[in-house]
Amino acid sequence: MAIDTDTARRVAHLARIRVAEDDLPALATELSSVLAFMEQLSEVDTDGVEPMTAVSPMPLKRRDDVITDGDRQPDILANAPDAREGFMAVPKVVE
Q1: CA dihedral 24, 28, 34, 35 (to 10 degrees)
Q2: Is 91 a member of any domain?
Q3: How far apart, in whole angstroms, are the C-alpha atoms of residue 87 and residue 82?
Q4: How far apart are CA 20 and CA 4, in angstroms?
């Protein structure tokens, strides 16, 4: 499938990309080559091929999902400009 300059202009507009009028033929050529590659990929037989998340089969590192309170309240409140009774004090914004 070949992309013409009008289609390239419309694609650039839809993608909100400013493309100079002189660059539209080059963009049309690049988009045509991308579509040709996609057509070439669709010809590959993928029956019986397991989906992959990475090129090399490597298990992800996992940790136990343990709930903690963080135990960092004093460190966090030390950065607050105004802290009262264990909480950050902020200006009232709603009357």
Answers
A1: 150
A2: no
A3: 9
A4: 15
Residue 31 within any structural domain of the chain: yes
b/e code 3-38 from CB counts within 10 Å (16+ = b): bebebbeebbeeeeeebeeeebeebbeebbeeeeee
Specify the number of domains making up the chain: 1
Summarize pLDDT for 42-83 with one digit per residue, the tens.
899 989 888 887 788 777 788 888 888 788 888 889 989 999
Residue at 20: amino acid letter: A
Residue 67 placed within a domain: no
Please list, in sequence order, all residues whose beta carbon lies within 8 angstroms of the beta carbon of residue 90, skipping any fewer than 6 positions away: 82
The answer to whether residues 5 and 28 touch, using CB atoms and an 8 Å cutoff, is: yes
Could you tell me if residue 10 is inside a domain? Answer: yes
Model pTM score: 0.51
Q: Containing domain of residue 28, as a range?
A: 5-42
Q: What is the mean pLDDT of the chain?
A: 89
Provide the residue count of the chain: 95
